[in-house]
Amino acid sequence: MQREEQQTPRTEPPGGRDGGQDMRMRAIGPDTGRFLNTLARSLYAPLILELGTSFGYSAIWLADAARSAGGKLVTMEYHDYKSAFARQKSAEAGLEGHVEFVVGDATKLIGALGSKVDFVFFDLWKDLYLPCLEAVYPLLNPGAILVADNMLRPGGEDIRRYQQALRAKPGITSVLLPIGSGLEVSRFEP
Fold first, then answer.
1. Rounded CA separation 94/175 (Å)
2. SS3 content of the chain, % helix, strand, coil (to 5)
3. Looking at CB atoms within 10 Å, which of 14, 86, 88, 166 has the fewest?
4. In degrees, to the nearest 5, what angle opens at C-alpha 85 toward C-alphas 97 and 125?
5. How far is Cα 60 from Cα 91, in angstroms, rounded to an integer?
6. What is the CA radius of gyration of the chain?
7. Which runs of consecutive H residues, i.e. helices, occur in 44-184?
8. What pTM did the predictor assign?
């Protein structure tokens, strides 16, 4: 499905973001998945937070890393039908005990986590990157890793604002990597 989408012109269905009719995969590629998995596995018993589950491709990579490192993935998605599909696929992959699916507005849900986080993956609507960064920053454990997708493609003003704000945060070191659609990889050391 993803290969087919990449070869056809991009059109948004009626409703798109808010109407719950967005059926595009919008998934990371396998190189990005392997990279995320490798980074997350380097942490001890991490709480991994994924912002933007979509249909769960990246959640599989991150939940596998959580299982291997003795941690847990919490993945947040705005649309229940996407979260349900991702939940089914993670169960089929034998990962259900290592991932929690949360449905709703990530900018509001982050504050209800009640735990510090060790790894954050940003892959939701680009105008939400900055508000989610502001919400998650106080919850970062020392040594936390943040990864944001789509930094090169599609890029855009929202991505630039996120990158500038991120790099201005105390304790953050960051680098842009040309993996997949471009990944901003950051580490928090207060």
1. 33
2. 45, 25, 35
3. 14
4. 100
5. 10
6. 15
7. 57-69, 80-92, 106-109, 129-136, 157-168
8. 0.91
- At 92, list the tokens: 């089929």
| Alpha-carbon distances of 51 from 1, 38, 190, rounded to whole Å | 22, 18, 23
Encoding tokens for residue 4? 């087919």
Which residue reads 């449905």 in tokens? 103
pLDDT digits (tens, 9 = 90+) for 100-116: 999 999 999 999 999 99
Q: Does residue 20 sit in helix, strand or coil?
A: coil
Tell me if residue 147 falls in helix, strand or coil: strand
Tokens of 43: 């942490």
β-strand pairing of 72-77 with 47-51: parallel
User: Residue 101 is which amino acid?
Assistant: F
149 is written with which tokens? 């997708």
Q: Quick check: helix, strand or coil at residue 140? A: strand
Tokens of 48: 């991994």
